[in-house]
Amino acid sequence: MATTPTHEQAQLHLQVYDLRRETRLRQARDWFQQNYNVETMEEAMKLAAPGTEYGVYTGMVIGYWEQACALLNYGLLHEDLFFETSGEFFAVWEQLKPVVPQFREQFKDPNMLSNLEQAATKFEAWSNKRAPGHIDTMRQYMQQERTKAKAAAK
Fold it and tell me: Is pLDDT larger for residue 151 or for residue 131?
């Protein structure tokens, strides 16, 4: 049986959630979800190069979720509570996953986005116990949406 979140964990959870509501971060998250369908470093740089508006959006989304997942991985956030209410980070990881190895190599940082990756790995195991098939269904949906977006872009 899972433990109950502490008052401090619940407070921090609400603070992390409140940051998601910030106007510019909300815009960045919306843009990222709808547009970040890259498979190579070249595509990533073309879509969201550093210094561009979309590069800033991408950095905001990645930075937010990497920090939130670091708090989770260090035990400052309650894992079940986070997973029950914050599935967006997993979708972000799925969108980034094709290019993360290239990012790590390009920037000589094997730990780049490791908090997000670690949290996503734990979430997948957690979800597979609670709702078998959910992750596979979500991945299929995301792939369908990527395919539609690429077809529309042509």
Answer: 131
CB 116 within 8 A of CB 69: yes
Q: In 3D, which of 31, 103, 85, 81 has the Cα closest to residue 61?
A: 31
Taking the model in full, what pTM does it have? 0.93
Residues 149, 154: Cα–Cα separation, whole Å: 9
Cα 46 from Cα 95, distance rounded (Å) = 16
Q: Is 18 exposed, middle or buried (0-12, 13-18, 19+ CB in 10 A)?
A: exposed
| Domain locations along the chain | 8-153
- Tokens 């956030």: give the residue: 77
- Can you spell out the DSSP letters for 38-85? --SHHHHHHHS-TTSHHHHHHHHHHHHHHHHHHHHHTTSS-HHHHHHH
Non-local (6+) Cβ contacts of 16 within 8 A are 68, 71, 77
Percent of the chain clearing pLDDT 90 (strictly above): 90
